[in-house]
Design a protein that fits this description.
Length: 124
């Protein structure tokens, strides 16, 4: 989704969604760790290990990573985070998620009247 000094990748298959990242100069693509699960008390808990991954891997004296302690594993937030990092590090990046303003499908309703007829003669 974002390609630059820090790149963000996205995989989706039905109900399965995964995010991956890669740092420039490092050929390894790593999955961002995130998992929600039910505890013994029937409460939903979350493993937000992806925050530690990003804070550890995207260190920069000019980028205030620690301000994003509430970063969530949502597509929009991760995209904004990677764009902010690439802009802060003054690296060139490309955003593959930008959308064109053109519509793929246009529907218009036009009132009108159509008359048609069919007659069949059957000897039986």
């Amino acid at each position: 989704m974002i390609e630059g000094k820090a790149s963000l990748f996205y995989y989706e298959d039905r109900n399965l969604t995964r995010f991956f990242y890669q740092l420039e100069g490092n050929g390894n693509i790593e999955q961002l760790v995130y998992k929600s699960y039910v505890t013994r008390n029937d409460k939903i808990a979350k493993n937000n290990g992806f925050r530690d991954q990003l804070w550890g891997g995207l260190k920069s004296p000019t980028f205030k990573i620690m301000e994003d302690e509430n970063l969530n594993d949502r597509k929009k937030e991760l995209i904004d985070f990677f764009i902010a990092y690439n802009e802060c590090s003054r690296g060139k990046y490309f955003n593959y998620t930008t959308k064109d303003e053109t519509d793929l499908f246009n529907l218009s309703i036009r009132p009108g009247l159509n008359l048609s007829g069919l007659s069949i003669n059957n000897s039986f």
